[in-house]
Write a structure and sequence with these properties.
Layout (H helix, E strand, L loop, with lengths): L4 E6 L4 E3 L2 H9 L4 E6 L5 E4 L1 H12 L6 H11 L3 E4 L5 E3 L2 H7 L3 E7 L4 E5 H15 L10
Antiparallel strand pairs: 1-7, 2-6, 3-4, 3-5, 4-8, 7-8
């Protein structure tokens, strides 16, 4: 399970350090890369290869003619890239994915249970403001989760 929030820089070439805590978890599963793709809210979602394969297998079993399956493939699977991390723990984020998420300067890595999210600092701040307004009062509507 991925949890925690970490702020890092991203350089002009698109390299940013995968937080050591996350890198250890990915490596423990035998992987030396993360699968990075477009996520909601102009963030990038990063998966271990095993978690990615399990997720995509769910959609591979569905009809390719289903418009929702096609939309998922176009928006989520097609832009996905394997992004290995080097000995220093840096990941090279491809230009199209960097542009999608507006990544430059400072970025935020956030654990999200079965994946990691990569945000621009500004996007993360906006997301936290939106989340705070949703969670004002009783965040679970009196019914818990």
């Amino acid at each position: 399970m991925f949890r925690g929030t970490f702020q890092h820089a991203i350089d002009a070439k698109g390299r940013t350090s995968l937080p050591a805590k996350f890198r250890e978890q990915v490596s423990a599963g035998g992987a030396d890369c993360v699968v990075v793709t477009q996520g909601p809210d102009r963030a990038l979602w990063c998966f271990t290869p095993a978690e990615w394969d399990a997720l995509v297998a769910q959609f591979a079993a569905r009809s390719p003619f289903d418009p929702k399956v096609r939309a998922f493939v176009n928006q989520f699977v097609s832009p996905a890239q394997d992004c290995p991390f080097d000995k220093m723990g840096r990941v090279l984020v491809p230009p199209l994915l960097r542009a999608y998420a507006g990544l430059e300067g400072e970025v935020v890595w956030a654990g999200a249970i079965n994946h990691i999210e990569l945000w621009s600092s500004e996007g993360w701040a906006r997301r936290n403001e939106a989340t705070a307004s949703v969670l004002d009062g009783d965040p679970f509507g009196g019914g818990g989760l």
